[in-house]
Specification:
Layout (H helix, E strand, L loop, with lengths): L10 E4 L6 E4 L11 H19 L14
Antiparallel strand pairs: 1-2
Bound molecules: zinc ion.
């Protein structure tokens, strides 16, 4: 009995962060990144970028005044 049929060959993709080889398979929790570190780096960059965008509250949309 072989279980190889249930585990197809993993795809190797390029890690968006370091450009290295990354295993694109369920076993790779950090896919498409190669490691947790790379994922965190990219996630951090994306989060900070997003945060900057969302950090701009629109005063015109003051339906509920915070002052007073
Ligand atoms: Zn990487």
């Amino acid at each position: 009995m072989t279980t190889e049929t249930s585990s197809p060959a993993p795809r190797i993709v390029r890690c968006p962060t370091c450009g290295g080889d990354s295993v694109f398979a369920p076993q790779n929790t950090w896919r498409p990144f190669c490691s947790e570190r790379c994922r965190m780096i990219d996630l951090g960059a994306w989060a900070s970028e997003s945060f900057r965008v969302e950090a701009h509250p629109e005063p015109d949309e003051g339906d509920e005044p915070k002052e007073n």
